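Please review the protein record below. Let me know how this chain folds according to its tokens.
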Amino acid sequence: MRGATLHRARKADLSILLPLIAEFCAVDAHPYDEARVCRALGPLLENDSLGVVWLIGEPPGGYAVLTWNYSLESGGRDALLDEIYLRERGRGFGAAALAAIHGDLRRRGITRVFLETETHNERARRFYARNGYEVEPSTWMAAELETPR
């Protein structure tokens, strides 16, 4: 991977994205269900109404998924950096990718971005702190909802 250029991912990029997402899931100890991932990626690869998927580097050696939220606390639309993964670490590509992502978010009028890290991933939290992220006093909670039949 040379550089941390961003390239907007489209449906034609699925064969590049899926192996990267599978690698991310393996590294972060998440289950990987390709059918579920493809269902979720579909709308994001169609247009930017729900968010954006970036391929990072040329040739791509990483990706980032951002989704849009709306919050009174944020003053309107904010973003969630749902996933970011780079095969090569420690060479400045992550910081460069975040800077480019932040620039894109500013151009979209988004002034706040959130992300989630795993409790065990101190390295990731140090990286994000170096790039302007702070620990929020909130605690995320989740509820799995059944799909209507």
